[in-house]
Amino acid sequence: MKIMVVGGGGREHAIIKKIKENKNVTEIFALPGNGGMAQDATLVNIGAKDISAIVQFAKDNKIDYAVVAPDDPLVLGCVDALEEEGIPCFGPKANAAIIEGSKVFSKNLMKKYGIPTAAYEVFDDLQKAIEYLKTAPIPTVIKADGLALGKGVIIAMTREEAFEAVTSMMQDKVFGKSGDHVVIEEFLTGPEVSVLAFTDGKTCIPMVSSMDHKRALDGDEGLNTGGMGTVAPNPYYTDDIAKICYDTIFMPTVNAMNAEGRTFKGCLYFGLMLTPKGPRVIEYNCRFGDPETQVVLPLLESDLLTVMQAVTNETLAECKVVFKKESACCVIMASKGYPTAYEKGFEITIPEDISDSVYVAGASVKDGKLYTSGGRVLGVTSTDSTLQGAIDKSYAKVASIHFDNAYYRRDIGKRALQAK
Ligand code: AMP
Ligand code: GLY
Question: Which residue from 214, 389, 397, 400 has the least number of CB within 10 angstroms?
């Protein structure tokens, strides 16, 4: 089978490595991928948002199955376009990807179907938003409606910050059209959990839970990033909480999307906060998380391609999805300065014997050598019978990888260890 994976980061590298385990797979193409994946996939210089070129490539190369991993092509209708040409795909259609593409949509969906989330108001007029904020409880949370590279959420600790946030989004348009509408919501507290789930629109199978580390610096300080590391399972997510989430959040969301005529097929990502009043949805994503995927898939015992195909064929109920009863830890090595300005172009050396544990996010190849080309450069994952063991193994591997300007957090998994 010829497989095509749309996307180019560490998440896509983890998906590719896992799909490669299937013996029927003869070739995997990554569009565009990155230089660090060249040993695992054939790189194709087509951007993940270039839908017509992606479809043309799939037709020309007789692709048997496509995985569309990032949010942008999903929201732009990449799966719709591929399916129109008869190419089976993993990922939701555009009308379902809106669950991530529009926060106004997802908040209204949760309200309509009674799915627990933070209380909120939607504004499309700056003056009305400012009027509301004059008496709103502080801290408050301000979210741009559309995709904003994970940066469209501002936690305002003071009223002044809240005024600034709505002004920058709605008047200065720092996130472009994504700021035409803003959601202002209740500030919640509690441990955060990421749960990715396979769903074919009928059955929903949650994967092992995980914990992201979004802030750039140790101790959860500094700016929000795409994610500096993950651990799985998330020890705060007990079996009892998992059951509550399945009954009050996961299945109700799948059913709500069906009721809206927007059946969701693919990986539905639940960003949850375990508040003193119970689990609440912080965000939905229409795709695998990054870097959650880099800890979840190494724990997947079942064959990923088989599960994905069951999602496509709507036979997930008949499919066994089994996870190892182990822990995993992924430490992201970034370029110093990320998520703002950073230098790139430094040579990366990775010892051969750990290359299986490395998921490359931002690297290019020149004359057979690997060079840094992005903010997040690579992730290093280990699994072990204990979380401490997985953390120790990953940091030992990190110490053996070299590139100038490397930066990584030293405390990935620390909070999870404290939960026990
Ligand atoms: P998001 O981009 O929606 O994942 O939000 C980024 C981060 O902002 C989340 O991971 C939370 O830490 C935080 N956040 C989002 N919404 C809320 C909320 N209602 N209350 C407290 N923190 C929030
Ligand atoms: N790690 C968070 C995300 O993928 O959105």
Answer: 400
